[in-house]
Queue: 3 jobs
Job 1
Amino acid sequence: MPLEILINATREETRVALLEGDLLQQLFTERTKERGIVGNIYKAKVLRVLPGMQAAFVDIGLDKSAFLYVGDVLDPDKRYEDLIGGDSDEEESSRGPREGRRARAAGRPIEMLLRSGDEIIVQVSKEPISTKGPRVTMYVSLPGRYLVFMPGIRHVGISRRIGSDRERRRLKEIVDNLSTTNGGYIVRTVSSGVPEEEFASDMGFLELLWGNILKKWQYLKAPCLLHMDLDLTFRAVRDMFTPEVDRLIIDSRRHFEQVMEFVQAYLPSVADRVFLYEGPSPLFEYFNIEAEISRGLGKRVWLKSGGYIIIETTEALTVVDVNTGRYVGKTGSLEDTITKTNLEAVKEIAHQLRFRNIGGIIIIDFIDMDEAGNRDRVFQALQQAVSQDKARINLYRMSDLGLVEMSRQRKRENLQQVHCEPCRYCDGRGFTKSPTTVAYEMFREIRVSAADRPAKVLTLSVHPAVAEILMGEDRESLEALEAEVRKELVVKADRRRHMEEYEIQQSRQA
């Protein structure tokens, strides 16, 4: 299946779509005024150390303080000559530095490692999401085209996606031979088949970059930015433009020329796969990406059989519900119909989690299956479907009720958070009070406050939907209330009012 990267670049925002065949697999959006900060490195000041949480809040110069967990704190005796690398988007071939440092940190409480006022180097590992500030680590990693440099540790990891044992040995020998500094490396997936001279160039660049960061650390005052990661266009070229990608298509001539200049200097082998799009219709319209984005913002996703899934995201977790919908099956067996729907839903769920970038805790509610063998089939299919996801996933066995618990690594905002905001009309609840509920709330207020309103006539200014209820099915209740409070109640429909908003106005005359 052809694999393509589409880049839609304008002055105000850049969007990158990863397209596999006709299916939109991933979408990344970066807006000029809201550029992401994951990967940025800061000189930070510790604001508060919280022993009860084994964490600290640090100031990196943003509106919200950053969160630093004890497992991401460097030993004071090893700053900053012996920095160890942090997480990357590549999996390591063996027990890497992340696991090792967690184990070492477990025995030392954070109050022995940090104090308020300390100045430290941190790297952003997670974007600020919703009300939470960014998460940071003191274990810096610098990604290049072929390598991820981890200052301060003699460790070489090979991406697990490189399957050949012979190639893995070759890559490890190259890195071991070239490495001259006290630093470690992760060899990225794109490195398979790359000659030794390419690694030497990448290694030299990353070590020079780290040296410049340390120089800035010495003379700049905290909090300040020491290093900003590449913008989205160049990150896509660096991280996504693998040998498996058939084409990279850009619709901006300026961005196309910049990318061509970059690849001709550093990646000449891929230059013939970079294209400028000059079609009559917009790039994302031509490849049907805009329609896919619109569908991705909806709750319901239809399956080809006629079944569907519902995706509900809350503050705490995301729930995915599977339904048979219009699908009635062909075998006459309800169990077969349900199992087929669940199996079809598995592929779509894995796709939607990746496309929408849904992270955190996820609960999947499959349709109940009576046979244990069918439950195993569906669970194994789910394991297979999510195995190609680059985000870290933890998957737990299906319960007898058909529920699967899983977690997916979250580093940036999901599709909905990037493109939407809470509804201003319902204040993000997803619903409003019914016209009847609003009418009866108003009735209760009139009963309580009637004695304090000397006017003989009260004008009820309400939303038209509430007015329709008052003048229609609840007309008798309105008249009974008039008799009860001994006032004339005049209903006035006001289209400018919110559904839940009303005003009781006094008037001396009808």
Job 2
Amino acid sequence: MSSYNQLEMKTPILQTKRKSAWQKELTLSKVLAGILLILATVFFIFPFYWVVSGSFKLQTVATTIPPEWFPLKPTMQNWTELFKNPVERWMFNSFIIALVEMIAICIVSSSAGYVLAKKSFPGRVIIFTMFVAAMALPKQVILVPLFTMLADFGWVNTYKGLILPAIGWPFGVFLMKQFAQTIPGELIEAAKIDGCSEIRLFTTIILPLLKPALGALAIFTFITSWNDYFSQLIMTRSTSMMTLPLGVATLRGEFTTNYGLLMAGAALASIPMIAIFLLFQKAFTQGITMGAVKG
């Protein structure tokens, strides 16, 4: 048998061995990746599980050491005690503030981002630079002059005072401007040649293309507004205007703390954020992917 024929016979065997080794390596990497993902999932889900399980424990059980990892004698006492407070009013305030802020910020940020990305006018670079600089400015720095201004307007302890200052969110404008830059200029020019007005151009062409970014911005806005404890604490004066995070914080006693009751309030406050994320998850994922590819 010639050396050529021997080499031809050995080649499929070598290829099979290489393929088998590659499959083993691929399988091992998948197993390791799966283990890491499981560990990461447990690490991030455990705090939520601990809060939910703690809401069904009595005070004596919630503070025991070693801890009771699973409530052996679950009770609804904490939830019953929680709803003796005006929780419905607190949830209504939180929903109104977060929902209106989410819608308003998405509208304002998308229009401002589109103008800064696709329109040429004097001072455009300076305005965008100011937005970027405002992102690095802590909210606590502007809180005193903002409170003074709202007090002069008579907007303290009102929905207007809680919602309107948050609409001009620099991060929202920055995010939408970066996404609007990916829209082809030829598409806009073609729409103008066909006689499309600016309003129709923005509503029928620009907004659908910005849908992934709007989904991501909606999630960021809702969660930020829902958890904005500090600003809401300064701007509210009455129990009826409190949001759910503020109301849950008032459940902490001066000398004792019912951790089961607080965990019930925290679990209730986390449900809307999880629901909003699941609702906009597809658009959020598309927005992150789009930004990674086209950024």
Job 3
Amino acid sequence: MNGNLFATLGSRIPEFSKGHRRIADYILSHYDKAAFMTASKLGESVGVSESTVVRFASELGFDGYPELQKALQEEMRTRLTAVQRIEVSFDRFGRDEVFKSVLLHDIDRIRRTLEETDPKYFSSAVEDIISADRIYIMGIRSSAALASFLGYYFRLMLPRVTVIETGSRSELYEQLMYMTDRDVLVGISFPRYSRQTVLAINYARDVGAKTVAITDRNDSPIALRADKSLLAKSDMVSFVDSLVAPLSLINALIVAVSIQNRELVSKNFERLDKIWEEYDVYEKNGGEQ
């Protein structure tokens, strides 16, 4: 099924049977709980059978209830408040097995990222980055850590890299004012999606620069506007967004750029090694001062 799940449910309620209407009403009113219920539990909560819930998913165009549940979880992430996220975390994990549960969820996010990322898009994004005169990187709120990490390594490897430091809207455009059609902007955004990052992508497109989105789905606001999208799963496991899979994707991007630009990168690091040694940037082995 394409489009906004909640809008679809709201518009189709009048045509649903009585049982299906009760399911739709419950999902719209309690989506934070329904997203993590089994078909049996959801049916029990609204007073219908498990088979009715499964038929409801099919009527909406899903192959089965698990697909509806996955879509609901993805839609839900853009709607939950911080307080609701905390409540969801407690409902899912309680106080036991938090360590194991969170790590297993992160492992699953990396696996899904590997399965769903198109290698051709990845390679094409690497080419855009290497061929650009200047590379701009933008990510704010929780994505700021990802932008900072990517910017740190790109600055070591490439000569003209700018990490956008956001403040007011005017400051955003001031930092982008010298962007040209020979540049590339890497925009990073995950739910809840940043309006500032969307504005930056729009501006880059207006001046003819290439744009690469690092996000979680093809219909995210920046993916819809970018030339290329690299998808990484960041499904919410608590009120904290999981950035493990996005960081793994960014690691791959850094390594790929370094391999494609091997000669330049090697020279840069030879120069850096001399600087680090001369100015005692790092501790010597054995704890020497």
